[in-house]
Write a structure and sequence with these properties.
single chain; 167 residues; alpha+beta; CBS-domain; 2 domains; two-stranded antiparallel sheet; 5 helices; 8 strands; binds adenosine-5'-diphosphate
Length: 167
Amino acid sequence: MAGYLDARPRVGYFYTGKSGTQLLAEKVKHITVKHYQSRPVVVQEAASVYDAICTMFLEDVGSLFVVDKQATLVGVLSRKDLLRASLGKQSLESIPVSIIMTRMPNITVCKADDLITEVAKKLIDKQIDSLPIVTEVDYGSGFEVTGRITKTNITALLVDLANDEMI
Ligand code: ADP
């Protein structure tokens, strides 16, 4: 009866008055990004569009994060960014990802301790598929990439909720 009943000394058990939906909402509001994150896949900013396409296929991901020589976040590449770059006549080996990526400071990021509901809202509001999970550093762009959270991760949470198997 988790959440439906509570107990107090000299009162005993009593009904909390909370609906199933309220209890579920309370549960979900405590889940943070770190519980559902994936491994980030990164490419160097000097990498070519050709290399990035190969990495995306080999790693089986829908977005790549671009890092500088200090391994800090400088860009994001989506499937459509790479598709768009492939429409031109230029050789894909000769186009660096740095000229087609979405770059800092326009990247939406999150932290491992952020609520998963806040991330879900950012994904919807910005109409994007994933966010890099970052920690702040005092060199390079100021963000080191530690993880990745995607719409698929949030779908996994939904499945866990339905099966009452939440982390
Ligand atoms: P796709 O372009 O394959 O539909 P997305 O919806 O994730 O994939 O990306 C849409 C655009 O938003 C792309 O140009 C991409 O570079 C950019 N983008 C993706 N993720 C982010 C992010 N976290 N912050 C800012 N821009 C992003």
